[in-house]
Amino acid sequence: MTNGAGLSVLTSAVPIILFALLLFVLLALAGVILLSLALRYRAGTARRQARRWVASLNVWMTSFSAVFFLSFTLLLSFWVGSAFGFALTGMFFGGIRISYRIRNHRAFCVWLVARHACRQQY
What we know:
single chain, 3 helices, 0% strand, flat
């Protein structure tokens, strides 16, 4: 509906109510996500006994994922010539980084064992 000057006039408050409801839902969703992250962090920092089958499943699924990734980059390299080489390079340097972190974690734990603050995890 328009007024005498040709400007649009709202005859109903429904769009404003819908906007307020949408804003409320988005804020509630953000609050729930933040709360779930905080509770997940709290639960994730608790010490638990490691389960052998979970660790084995993690190793197998990571290996499967790496093979799957390399096979698809090999397939992609027919169109993008350097894709497989970049994938291998990234996995190589990622492996170096992981081995470096494991070695440093062991050294850090050995240093802290004298203070009885760290258990040997690897």
